[in-house]
Design goal:
- The chain is an all-alpha fold and about 220 residues long.
- The chain has one domain (about 5-205).
- Helix content is about 75%, strand content about 0%.
- The radius of gyration is 21 Å and the shape is flat.
- The relative contact order is 0.19.
Length: about 220
């Protein structure tokens, strides 16, 4: 186990404790908020990113933060070219990384807004129906839902962490063997999370541009 696994366990443990202390009704509202937040975020993140990029020129503004020294770009380009990837220049990579970062921000923003709205509605309903459940039953139900909530949050984080291996590799001079990639590959829990994310594999892969991924070499 490494720091990634410890962080994942802390997140799940924290949500479990929150579920135990909050109760079942608010836990249901929180879970519904997470589910609907994911659905809406996956459906509209690209549209929001495109709108924000064209409306406020955020893609151009973000690309400035991906400006690297010429030597670093040349070293990175040499490595990616050796892997079979083709680029027209550093500006192309800047735009790609900026757009992907904008999509991640849009995803998180939509998720948080939808989650908060649903949770507020659920909180109001829980106050009305507070006497409908016995305390111990409500707490145990909240504990179970808290664990589920924590697991869902962890899956979201893992889905967002996987594509970031490419930008981190760029910052590391085009080296695939860096602290971030090693942490993910040596994690005990992340492979299990990726297995649970299999139904959403297409959406996750779409976060990585095809021309950034090294070309698959075939042997005859």
């Amino acid at each position: 186990m490494n720091w990634v696994d410890v962080t994942i366990l802390v997140i799940i443990g924290w949500f479990a404790w929150r579920g135990l202390t909050t109760g079942l009704l608010k836990g249901i509202a929180r879970l519904a908020g997470i589910f609907l937040g994911i659905v809406f975020a996956m459906k509209y993140d690209s549209q929001l990113a495109d709108f924000a990029g064209s409306k406020w020129h955020l893609t151009e503004k973000l690309s400035k933060y991906f400006s690297f020294p010429t030597d670093l770009w040349n070293e990175s380009m040499s490595w990616w070219s050796s892997q079979g990837s083709s680029f027209t220049g550093g500006e192309q990579i800047q735009n790609i990384l900026s757009m992907r970062l904008l999509e991640i921000i849009a995803f998180l923003l939509i998720f948080l807004v939808v989650y908060r709205l649903v949770y507020l509605v659920g909180s109001l309903l829980s106050k009305v129906a507070r006497t409908a459940f016995l305390g111990p039953v409500d707490r145990l139900g909240g504990l179970a839902l808290g664990i589920v909530n924590g697991l869902v949050i962890v899956l979201i984080l893992v889905a967002l962490m996987m594509p970031l291996q490419i930008p981190v590799s760029m910052f590391s001079g085009g080296q695939p063997d860096n602290w971030y990639t090693r942490s993910i590959q040596s994690s005990v829990i992340i492979p299990k999370c990726r297995h649970l994310l299999t139904p959403f594999e297409g959406k996750i892969i779409d976060l990585i541009p095809d021309n950034i991924l090294p070309a698959q070499k075939t042997t005859i």
